[in-house]
Amino acid sequence: MSTRDDVIKYCLEFEGCYIDSPFRDDNWTLARLRHNKKSFAFIYERNSYICVNVKVDPEIRDFLRLSYKAVTPAYHQNKRHWNTIILDGSIDDKLVKQMIRDSYEMVRR
Predict the structure, then answer these.
(1) Residues with Cβ < 8 Å from 105, sequence gap 6 or more?
(2) Which of 19, 48, 61, 89 has the most CB atoms less than 10 A away?
(3) pTM score, two decimals?
(4) How large is the C-alpha radius of gyration of the chain?
(5) In the predicted model, is pLDDT for residue 67 greater than 90?
């Protein structure tokens, strides 16, 4: 998973998901849930990489940040509840998808 389209395509596989661009900045794309309008993935380009901000359980937040250089405190969001995944190829697609899926499950409740 390395492109914006890859992330968007994966997010659209989730039930009730739609893609939104609510900001004046076309760089930002959000994956949201129809029933509550909550976002679970913020997709954007920064420093020549596609990045995805995902909601994260605070209990595993620091583990992910310490284990993967490409997982950082969220850019432009609450650092306690959100991480940024930098899609630089250093994290296996399976784990990237799991983090996005976990974010979806957290906002779906």
Answers:
(1) none
(2) 61
(3) 0.95
(4) 13
(5) yes
